[in-house]
Amino acid sequence: MLFGILLFSLNDVMGKWLVSTYTPGQLMLLRSAAALLVLAPFILRQGIRRTLRPERPRLQLLRMAIGATESTLFYVCVAHLPLADTMTLWMAAPVWAVLLAALLLGERVDPARWAAAGLGFLGVALALAPSGASFSPPALLALTGSVLFAALLIAGRKLRGTPDVTLVAWQTFGSLLLGTALLPLGWVMPTPRDFALLGLLGIVALLGHLCVTRALKLAEASVVAPYQYTFIIWALLFGWLFFGDWPTPLMLCGAALIVAAGLALMLLERRAAGIAGRAASRDRSAHAGSA
Q1: Which end of the chain is less packed: N or C, by CB atoms within 10 Å?
Q2: Is the per-residue pLDDT at 132 higher than 50?
Q3: Does residue 69 surpass a pLDDT of 90?
Q4: Exposed, middle or buried by CB within 10 Å (0-12, 13-18, 19+), for 109?
Q5: Which residues in 247-260 are b (16+ Cβ under 10 Å) and which e?
Q6: For residue 75, which of 38, 28, 127 has the smallest C-alpha distance?
């Protein structure tokens, strides 16, 4: 999991550097094309028919559209915002997921989870507060991206039985299609070095996806998910090393609150899952005893 997050963080650094020259659509197109070349053997091994005809195709299409839009918004945001600021706002996704789960899925949210979500929203407010410019369109787009990321997490819950290759392939198809659609907004012919970096961007992102999905297969999500907040640490380090950026004290306080809220939500969900599991075990034991 940690290695996967490091790969994603390196992908973010390369993306921020490249988006200063190339459009987000061009990045999405070339990144996705490179990723598909690497992914092709896995698709063939699994079977093209099985990959292209998954269960719940409508939800897959929705997830594909959300994922492609979320990735594109990220590149738009890092072109105008420091890396740490962007990642801080993006990591509010688990907080948004609580609200979306209650509104869209009708999930019951207990007071403790609402309190943790409120702490996260306070962190978002602090992260946006340092100056009036913080409420600029890129910052608001970053918030929109974090909401889309939350929707992606919820869609992932509903597709747990789908093979990893299928999930990654559909998301890559979506990015390829959206990148192609955005090409009329601008195309810059890459230099040989940049062309290699654009390809590497897709390969690194693909490897990051595979590492994270494998980690979630090998261990419970509640065990490995807290490591996602090392994104902010890497963003701080790489933003300072490569771009000379350092967040304001209020941004750091907001990041701390968002991380605390996310960890609290994970602990509460883990506790709720444990209680539900023990209750189900008692019900099975009682049923077996009566039989």
Answers
A1: C
A2: no
A3: yes
A4: middle
A5: bbebbbbbbebbbe
A6: 28
| Nearest CA among 163, 273, 150 for reference residue 217 | 163
Query: Token pair for residue 275?
Result: 């209680």
CA neighbor of 131 nearest in space, from 18, 250, 47: 250
Burial 169-182 (b: 16+ CB within 10 A, else e): bbbbbbbbbbbeeb
Structural domains counted in the chain = 1
pLDDT at 115 over 60: yes
pLDDT at 273: 62
Give yes or no for residue 177 having a pLDDT over 80.
yes
The winner for highest mean pLDDT among 77-81, 93-97, 103-107, 266-270 is 77-81
Q: pTM here?
A: 0.81
Q: Which amino acid is at 68?
A: A
E strands in the chain? none
Cα–Cα distance, 169 to 8 (Å, whole number): 17
**What does DSSP assign to residue 130?**
S
Domain limits at 117?
2-290
69 secondary structure, DSSP code: H
